Automatic annotation (TrEMBL), chain A:
<dbReference type="InterPro" id="IPR000515">
    <property type="entry name" value="MetI-like"/>
</dbReference>
<feature type="transmembrane region" description="Helical">
    <location>
        <begin position="25"/>
        <end position="47"/>
    </location>
</feature>
<comment type="similarity">
    <text>Belongs to the binding-protein-dependent transport system permease family. HisMQ subfamily.</text>
</comment>
<dbReference type="GO" id="GO:0043190">
    <property type="term" value="C:ATP-binding cassette (ABC) transporter complex"/>
</dbReference>
<feature type="transmembrane region" description="Helical">
    <location>
        <begin position="85"/>
        <end position="106"/>
    </location>
</feature>
<feature type="domain" description="ABC transmembrane type-1">
    <location>
        <begin position="21"/>
        <end position="210"/>
    </location>
</feature>
<comment type="function">
    <text>Part of the binding-protein-dependent transport system for glutamine; probably responsible for the translocation of the substrate across the membrane.</text>
</comment>
<keyword id="KW-0812">Transmembrane</keyword>
<feature type="transmembrane region" description="Helical">
    <location>
        <begin position="185"/>
        <end position="205"/>
    </location>
</feature>
UniProtKB/TrEMBL annotation, chain B:
<keyword id="KW-0813">Transport</keyword>
<comment type="similarity">
    <text>Belongs to the binding-protein-dependent transport system permease family. HisMQ subfamily.</text>
</comment>
<keyword id="KW-1133">Transmembrane helix</keyword>
<dbReference type="GO" id="GO:0022857">
    <property type="term" value="F:transmembrane transporter activity"/>
</dbReference>
<dbReference type="InterPro" id="IPR010065">
    <property type="entry name" value="AA_ABC_transptr_permease_3TM"/>
</dbReference>
<keyword id="KW-1003">Cell membrane</keyword>
<protein>
    <submittedName>
        <fullName>Amino acid ABC transporter membrane protein 2 (PAAT family)</fullName>
    </submittedName>
</protein>
<feature type="transmembrane region" description="Helical">
    <location>
        <begin position="56"/>
        <end position="79"/>
    </location>
</feature>
<keyword id="KW-0812">Transmembrane</keyword>
Length: 225, 224
């Protein structure tokens, strides 16, 4: 019963929760870096005129968006060994998160670039700029600004998604809650505590997103996270 | 060897159908309930009562700030401690409905706020009651903003339903997990699982895109 909610046990397990939190943070950071790399490559492919790069990029993005992360995670977890690639669970998890979030990041970057008014491009052309100069000096600096808040929104999604890695036995925050639940039969203590830690991360990132919007002089966009 | 695997896979198609059925049922029930509750919450949230609006806002933030997996565990393991007995299916429905309702609430709030105040004032001046204002003036105009992300939300809901496999429900993802223990070909098995979701989700993604374009075009917003 909840009258017996044991703060003492939570304090006792605090080092475990701390480790889990630290693992969740750094594996999310690594995955986000991976997602940025995947997203930049995909959006560059997606903005090409020729179909050779555009079609595979689009197909990849659609495939990722139309299937659950958990199925993708299991695809890699059970599928990679089949190809003779044996990786630790943690690496498989980071790979899955990067490949999954990368597709969403690609869409954010593409929307950012397409949000630049055509007049800007035309002005660049009229000033005799080359394609690379236009991209580097006109489009990307403006697009960069617009993409920061939605990218932080994607970071929030990624942190929450990382909880699924507990299902392939990665020792992150949710796993710490599961351990407390199964070792001591205290699911309430375990899961309420990790929920609090996730909320901490959520409000931190949300605050950062709001701040970045103000720094960049953007309207406080209502993100759909 | 691949032939044997294919045969073994073909043998487990009744299981796969059951899994697909479970995924569709979970998604459909929580989609309908979540939409109804979400609209109700959204209308209450914009209703002007500070206390109710604040409470709904806080709850939505709690749900948006925690992983869905953690929410399922909380519902499945803690409600029984409070004396509410429930099986995995009910727990899954509650968790999914709650998640959908919270996200749809936010979408509805954004839609209602997008309606110009002049419209509401005109309705007030015409002597329409609160209910009629909402039903005949505000909501029809809000739907233009609400519809595309609403369909997108349904896709998220179907995908999130895969997470309930963690409490032992035999949905499509769980079936993949079960089959891969017998047929050791993770690539093939989870490709097929993914295909199952893709067939359901992809048309909805396309629909959301079309709606977005059409709703934008209908109001003469030029996409640059």
């Amino acid at each position: 019963m909840l009258e017996n909610f044991s703060f003492r046990t939570i304090v006792e397990y605090l080092p475990l929760f701390g480790q889990g939190l630290v693992t969740t943070v750094w594996l999310s950071l690594l995955s986000f870096a991976g997602a940025l790399a995947v997203g930049i490559v995909l959006s560059a492919m997606n903005l090409q005129r020729g179909w050779l790069f555009r079609v595979p990029a689009k197909a990849y993005i659609d495939a990722v968006r139309a299937t659950p992360l958990l199925a993708q995670l299991y695809f890699l977890y059970f599928g990679l060994p089949r190809l003779g690639i044996i990786l630790p669970e943690l690496v498989v998890g980071i790979l899955a998160l990067s490949l999954n979030s990368g597709a969403y990041v690609a869409e954010i970057i593409r929307a950012g670039i397409l949000s630049i008014p055509r007049g800007q491009v035309e002005a660049g052309v009229a000033s005799g700029m080359t394609y690379v100069q236009r991209m580097r000096l006109v489009i990307l600096p403006q697009a960069f600004k617009v993409t920061i808040p939605p990218l932080l929104g994607q970071a929030i999604v990624l942190v929450k998604d990382s909880a699924l890695l507990s299902l392939i036995a990665v020792a992150e925050l949710t796993r710490a809650g599961q351990l407390l639940a199964s070792d001591r039969f205290m699911p309430a203590e375990g899961f309420v505590t990790i929920a609090a830690f996730y909320l901490l991360l959520y409000y931190g990132l949300k605050g950062l997103a709001a701040l970045s919007g103000r720094w960049l002089g953007l309207q406080p966009a209502r993100s759909s996270i | 060897m691949i032939w044997q695997q294919l045969q073994s896979l073909a043998g487990s198609y009744p299981l796969a159908l059951r899994g697909l059925g479970m995924t569709v049922m979970l998604s459909l029930i929580s989609l309908v309930l979540g939409t109804l509750i979400g609209f109700g919450l959204g209308i209450l949230r914009t209703g002007g009562n500070r206390l109710i609006s604040g409470l709904i806002g806080a709850w939505v933030d709690l749900i948006r700030g925690t992983p869905f997996l953690v929410q399922i565990f909380l519902i499945f393991f803690i409600l029984p401690e409070l004396g509410i007995e429930l099986d995995a299916f009910t727990a899954g429905i509650i968790a999914l409905t709650n998640l959908a309702a919270c996200f749809i609430c936010e979408i509805v709030v954004a839609g209602i706020r997008s309606v110009p105040t002049g419209q509401v004032e005109a309705a007030l001046a015409s002597g329409l009651s609160r209910w009629h204002r909402m039903r005949q003036v505000v909501l029809p105009q809000a739907m233009r903003i609400v519809l595309p992300p609403l369909v997108g939300q349904y896709v998220l809901l179907i995908k999130d339903s895969s997470v309930v496999s963690a409490i032992g429900l035999t949905d499509l993802t769980r079936v993949g997990w079960l089959v891969v223990q017998r047929v050791p070909n993770g690539l093939l098995v989870f490709f097929l699982v993914g295909l199952g979701y893709f067939i359901v989700c992809y048309p909805l993604i396309m629909l959301a895109r079309r709606l977005e374009q059409r709703m934008g075009a209908a109001h003469g917003e030029v996409q640059l």
